[in-house]
Amino acid sequence: DTPLRKRNVVTAHEELLVFLSGGASALMVAAAEGITLEDKQRTTSRLLREGADIYSLNTVRKHLSAVKGGRLAARCAGACRAFVISDVVGDDLSVIASGPTVGDASTFRDALDVLARFGGEAAYPAAVVDRFRRATGETPKPGDRALARTTTTLIGSRVDAMAGAESEARARGYRVVVFDGPVTGEARVAAAAHLHALLAMAQTVPCPLCVISSGETTVRVTGRGRGGRNQEFALAMAVPLAENRVEALIASVGTDGIDGPTDAAGALVDATTLERGRTLGLSPDRSLADNDAYTFFEALGDLVRTGPTGTNVG
Known about the structure:
It is a single chain. By secondary structure, this protein is α/β, with parallel strands linked by helices. The protein is built from 13 helices and ten strands. A three-stranded parallel β-sheet has the order 1-2-3. α5 packs antiparallel against α6. The two termini are 27 Å apart. The model has no long low-confidence stretch (mean pLDDT 93).
């Protein structure tokens, strides 16, 4: 989080190669003038707790940064070539890693509107709000001449992960159905809708059946527990799975191997989850209310732990 030094600037006769993957918005940090690292951390943390989606979150990030929103490539006197692995539903290059090498259509006004929608301006550092209200010099926009020597190419996404899972499932003897549409929205709400779709699918395709889907859900944190979007997604299915007596195992996992601020990639849930939890005095509803899916699944031994995988596509 230090100013870009002159010795690191690419000359007109050199080429900058940029490789981006999931998590780059958090890892590549150079704060805009007048903004501290703590300002950015507090702002990001609050937006995440309020359940902001990645498009809203990165709209704010781009306007607090000296490199995001096309600014990295714009600073480059030479040519710039970027290769991107997408962890964003829709694969919008201006959102992945907060788009350091592509034009940004969003504005300071848009960033201010995000704060208003997710907690209100008073919930955020004064320096952040002041920057959005007073700052001049917008991010480079699509078609900006400063980006004329830059190319950005998508080389991997959730579609590739699903294709890999499909190939492995078929090799193991499963009939496979792939849901192309992304799973999005509040995790516990999206889980109910997705389970309904899975149950309908199970009526039409013979077993053994493997259904593959992917996406990016959100969680609005109001409790004090531990967990992540995948663990909440799985836990929200415990009651309806038991009620429908479905012979199915559902895994919800993050492709990076890290679900929320935990050491688990996600969790497993089936028709026995509810009863096994009750024997230990656990309630899915109470755990969800406290955002504590991790404790619930840890007690059952149903957390999925892969360790960090080194990539992230959803």
